[in-house]
Design the sequence.
């Protein structure tokens, strides 16, 4: 059950995680669910700010995982010997990126492989038809560190935005190293965040209009409802993602800085916990 709860939390489904916990531990689950609803109500009423609400959600998530019964599922490793340097005895790294930045992700992969690091990259290791959230969870569990390639494109992508949230929750739950690298500086600017929020709001409004028209025609909107949910989740969590990225040093790997910055990343990957 603990693993199922971790996956639900990573997908942002805290209420579902609480409901699952209630099947095994009804007393603490009931108390935590009450705290969950109270925090949400206080936030929507303006009684607590975003930061306080995030802290409360994090505390509840930690408690849910702590109360969840242990389990020992057999987790298949997403690594493959052909593409990931499986025979290499060094550490393992999962690369998180936007597909628009795939060329840079491959360059990072090649650098790490050449320096004795095993690499998990979706285009190399994710089987066809695999659920992306499950792949993220399995990859984070199988790795020693996550290298996240951050760019303006990665933070404006609804799907990758949700993927980033899932990866961050998974890293926190699994106590893994999180090493962001950046392709530009705009991702950390307040001007970018305001522009991104405006763009996301516009995209949501346009999608809402199209979904309403499709429903009026009797069409099935479920696939587009998922798109809307991803955009809405990103809009609500963009500040959290940027705050997390700003809290750690993110080397710039663009242009001629790639080699020197990746050397620093390599040192961080190899550094033993103090």
Sequence:
């Amino acid at each position: 059950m603990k693993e199922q709860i971790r996956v639900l939390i990573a997908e942002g489904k805290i209420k579902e995680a609480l409901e699952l916990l209630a099947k095994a531990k009804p007393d603490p689950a009931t108390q935590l669910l009450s705290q969950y609803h109270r925090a949400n109500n206080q936030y929507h009423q303006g009684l607590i700010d975003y930061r306080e609400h995030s802290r409360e959600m994090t505390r509840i998530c930690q408690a849910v995982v702590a109360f969840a019964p242990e389990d020992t599922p057999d987790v298949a490793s997403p690594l493959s010997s052909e593409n990931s340097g499986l025979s290499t005895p060094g550490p393992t790294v999962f690369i998180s990126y936007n597909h628009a930045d795939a060329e840079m992700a491959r360059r990072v992969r090649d650098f790490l492989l050449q320096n004795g690091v095993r690499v998990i990259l979706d285009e190399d290791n994710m089987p066809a038809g695999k659920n992306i959230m499950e792949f993220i969870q399995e990859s984070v569990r199988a790795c020693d560190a996550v290298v996240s390639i951050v760019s303006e494109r990665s933070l404006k992508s609804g799907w990758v935005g949700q993927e980033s949230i899932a990866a961050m929750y998974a890293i926190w739950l699994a106590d893994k190293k999180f090493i962001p690298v950046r392709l530009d500086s705009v991702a950390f600017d307040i001007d970018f965040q305001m522009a991104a929020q405006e763009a996301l709001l516009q995209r949501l409004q346009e999608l809402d209009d199209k979904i309403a028209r499709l429903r009026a025609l009797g069409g099935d909107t479920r696939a587009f409802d998922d798109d809307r949910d991803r955009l809405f989740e990103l809009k609500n969590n963009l500040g959290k993602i940027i705050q997390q990225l700003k809290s750690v040093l993110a080397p710039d790997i663009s242009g001629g800085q790639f080699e020197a910055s990746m050397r620093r990343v390599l040192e961080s990957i190899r550094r033993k916990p103090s």
Observations:
- The radius of gyration is 20 Å.
- The first helix runs from residue 2 to 10.
- The mean pLDDT is 79.
- The CA atoms of residues 162 and 234 lie 6 Å apart.
